Queue: 3 jobs
Job 1
Amino acid sequence: MSKKLVAFFSASGTTKKVAQMIAEEVKADLFEIEPKIPYTRADLDWMNKKSRSSVEMSDKKYRPEIMEKEIDMSSYDEIFLEFQIWWYVAPTIINTFLETYDFSGKKIVLFATSGGSGFGNTVKELQSSASDAVITEGRLLNCGTKQEITEWINSL
């Protein structure tokens, strides 16, 4: 039986609830991707071109620092990676996470929450940050109901 990890980034807490339900459903360990400097409400104002999130997303090479945590990625075969969709892709903090740990030979299944957009070019933009992993687009779980999560997990 393979060991699973649910890793997530949740700027406002909504995504965290979905990650917790998925971890419970697949009997996986839970890992929170935390920025070294937490995002404020003003940082997340996508209407303000000078907000922190807008600046980060306008430069695809930008990598926000994350809290370093000891975790043995070699003990996991499959990683469920969750985040909010920002500007039709994963936030660049997800690239930071993928570049911080070794995901060689791992299967990474993406899932996300979104205010209205889909995955866009997310897989393509993340693949270079974990080139030796197999990254697959999962599903948007905006409602995050137990039934929706169970159905999705059973479909994998």
Note: The radius of gyration is 15 Å.
Job 2
Amino acid sequence: MSEKEGARGIKLHFDFHFHSCLSPCGDEAMTPATIAGMCKLSGLDAAALTDHNTCGNCAAFCQAAEAYGLLALPGMELCTREEVHIVCVFPDLERAGAFQEEVYRSLGETRNDPAIFGRQLYLDADDRVLGEEPRLLAGATAIGVYEVPALVERYGGAAWPAHIDRSSFSLLSNLGLWDPGLGFSLAEVSRNCPPDFVSGRRDLRGVPTITGCDAHYLEQISDAGQVMEVPARSREAVLAWLRRGGA
């Protein structure tokens, strides 16, 4: 599948939740270039790399994705003070990097133990190892979940709670309910989300959802299954679609 002209614009098959080998729980085969290639083979037109609390491999991912004709967004899966995972995506590497520096300041200096959590590898677009991140990226930051939408918007990005149907590290499991006052325009559900999960909760009525594969291993990158329609093939158009709640 590939992007197609729709009645109102361009249709893009998308998934915005992937982890590279920089995430401590990401398999070392999940290199930025390999993820980009697998996304293309899976029929995606747009994708984002969203490692835990870092955008460190996004430059390599975006470079590799460009070679495959894939529209790539730099991103991050932020872990808030409440241990809620939030997907954040940005319009360019500069602003993603600036957001990363703010996240690093709030993350602390706990050291990673590769024997327990795995190596945290920085790679370039040719899969060459550039180094390892010594700071443990899997922990919670000092950023509160209510702060996230405005903070990400300050860097030109969009943010939404990840895998809200899961029993851990999700907004619903940790906070108990969806509060419209949080300011998120949509939410993510996992590919294994029960069909009646959203419709069966009163607090989720009217909340738009998208699906994220949350791939940590290559075999978890699945075929394209969702489509957005945007007026242009650009990061700005994709971000605007996300901020409007998928409309």
Note: Residues 93-107 form the longest helix (15 residues).
Job 3
Amino acid sequence: MTRSDDAGRLRSLGRLRRAPVRRRVRDAVAGELLGTVRSLGVVLGFTAFMLAVGIGYYAPTAGEVPVPLWPLYADSAVAVALGGLVLVDVLSTVRRGERVTDAPVSRGRAYLQTLAFVWLVQFGLWPLVSLNLAFGSYVAAPDAWIYYWGVLGTHLCFVGLALLFPAFGRTTRGALALAVAVVVGNVGLDYGLGYHPPLLYEPGPLLAGATLAIGLGSVWLAGRSFRRLGNEGR
């Protein structure tokens, strides 16, 4: 490999710092993964699999939580369900042979896409903190390849899925404000009332603070990533 090749690669990476270039890359990836009925069907199938795993994880302890609180308690499963709804919504656009980036926009869709993005990013990153606060317990547990490596791997897929949504989605100030309220409410439920996800240890202020920071960071990222509804030039 020559120095000119290295310089060319560095210039290419440097271009990714420019927002228009990042948007083109994101739109191209979204077109590849979601742009045909077959590829979108594969992503939907994997999403359904992750949803089934999430439901199986929360189901044994759901009876200990009041039913109205289930959407906040089963946070990872709900995140995947919201992401699945976003994908189903764009299916009709893809079936018509149109580009996924040309999917219709509306205020209701903006709220759904924003909440799905925030929930997927937050709980895609959350295991990186929650599991590693008790790293020894998880890697020493039976079936650690599932309960540690499997969880980390599948949850990082949440983030990858969410990052496709700004290619066709929108957000609003109201949607972002609602996302902040949901993030704060979830932290209060999990660590204030004690309805946190099943863990091998009793979480404390460190995990609560980290969860809040990840959630608010996810809202900030949504505000930076999505175009605003009615501001198509952005």
Note: The chain has a mean pLDDT of 88.
